[in-house]
Amino acid sequence: YFHGGLRDEEREMAINNWKSDYTQIMIATSAFGMGINSNNISV
After folding, report:
1. Helicase C-terminal domain: which residues (predicted)?
2. According to the model, what pLDDT value does residue 15 have?
3. Please, is 36 exposed, middle or buried when counting C-beta atoms within 10 Å of its C-beta (0-12, 13-18, 19+)?
4. Is there a contact between 2 and 29 (Cβ–Cβ < 8 Å)?
């Protein structure tokens, strides 16, 4: 999961896990979309 209330290290780990395909499904608020630029996102 990803939301604006995560600590910096939690946010970094969630993003890195998603980018490396360790996390294949991300439950997130709009905070996740801030700064994420990827072609493989389905909504």
Report:
1. 1-42
2. 87
3. middle
4. yes
DSSP 8-class letter at 6: S
**Contact status, residue 40 vs residue 15, Cβ threshold 8 Å:** no
Token pair in block for residue 17: 């896990």
3-state SS, residue 2:
strand
Burial group, residue 11, by CB count within 10 angstroms (0-12, 13-18, 19+)? middle
At a CB cut-off of 8 Å and minimum separation 6, what does 35 contact?
Answer: none
Say what the pTM is. Answer: 0.71
